[in-house]
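User: tokens in, sequence out, please.
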């Protein structure tokens, strides 16, 4: 049986691979933007991995923490919490310097119609952070939306594919990357650009979107006929394990599941597991947002949880009354309006 406690425990239980790598990471870890969907589990995962490695570290989570429950959860697991608005330069300058920074702050959901806020969060904050933490190793959460759409048979964009974002969210995300690249060039700051494509946590993600629509009788859009996704714990582990790869030449990494998943077959399987019928809307196009994860797999191995298992878990979660965060990925969006 699924429960919030079981899911959170799974998301924060470090693998042997992470524990081994954590033993080789020197210094404390500061997580900026730790109050979002992935931040709390990443912070607790880091704390548990450091303890298991026998190398106690300060794990410091920074967010506005508008949800006091999230802050208390972190403190209960030994993670230090600091409340700060990263748009406030004075508040940022009061934060401690650490050897390692995971930068997770940003804005995507609801960006359409709030373009100025989006650009402020996705470019001004990175510029301030890159300057303040120019002597730290920084793993920067980015997105596959900086890439162009590619033909379905092309295998996905590699890290060498030239950015060509569609829409203001994608453009501002590229702006975020450029601010950190500037710090690497000017100060020699070691940087990883962590290009994540659709993390899955059962409470949100592309599979949750699809399953929730099926249960509601809402047609599944085929405007993006294929997608990539990855278990959130796998993504968080790789973010931490990336720290030693940070360098001033800027290390770029696509982070997602190796499979190119087709929307229609995944939707049909979810429907069978949910005991529902499924309908579709739109005509499948010949291209989609797809990333090639070969570099990730070569460095860190195949994700611990494969797509087939994620589909089963997602159906079980909803059938057993598991909640959803109400933050859709908009995976079907093809014009960059999120």
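Assistant: Sequence out:
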């Amino acid at each position: 049986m699924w429960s919030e406690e079981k899911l959170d425990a799974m998301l924060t239980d470090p693998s042997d691979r992470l524990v081994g790598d954590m033993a080789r990471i020197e210094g404390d870890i500061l997580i900026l933007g730790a109050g979002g969907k992935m931040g709390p589990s990443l912070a607790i995962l880091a704390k548990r991995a450091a303890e298991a490695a026998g190398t106690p570290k300060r794990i410091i989570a920074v967010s506005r923490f508008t949800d006091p429950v999230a802050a208390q959860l972190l403190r209960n697991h030994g993670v230090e919490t600091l409340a700060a608005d990263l748009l406030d330069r004075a508040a940022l300058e009061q934060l401690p310097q650490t050897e390692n920074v995971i930068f997770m702050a940003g804005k995507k959901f609801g960006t359409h119609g709030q373009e100025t806020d989006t650009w402020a969060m996705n470019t001004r904050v990175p510029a301030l952070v890159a300057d303040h933490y120019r002597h730290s190793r920084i793993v920067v959460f980015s997105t596959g939306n900086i890439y162009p759409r590619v033909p379905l048979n092309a295998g996905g964009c590699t890290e060498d594919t030239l950015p060509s974002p569609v829409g203001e969210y994608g453009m501002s995300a590229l702006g975020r990357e450029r601010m950190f690249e500037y710090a690497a060039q000017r100060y020699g700051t070691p940087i990883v650009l962590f290009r994540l494509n659709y993390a899955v946590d059962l409470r949100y993600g592309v599979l949750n979107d699809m399953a929730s629509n099926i249960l509601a009788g809402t047609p599944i859009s085929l405007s993006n006929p294929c997608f990539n996704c990855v278990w959130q714990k796998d993504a968080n582990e790789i973010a931490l394990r990336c720290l030693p790869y940070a360098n001033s030449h800027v290390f770029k990494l696509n982070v997602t599941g190796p499979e190119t998943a087709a929307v229609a077959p995944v939707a049909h399987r979810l429907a069978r597991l949910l005991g529902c019928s499924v309908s579709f809307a739109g005509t499948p196009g010949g291209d989609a947002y797809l990333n090639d994860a070969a570099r990730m797999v070569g460095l860190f191995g195949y994700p611990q949880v494969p797509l087939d298992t994620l589909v089963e878990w997602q159906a079980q979660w909803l059938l057993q009354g598991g909640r959803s965060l109400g933050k859709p990925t908009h995976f079907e969006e093809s014009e960059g309006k999120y």
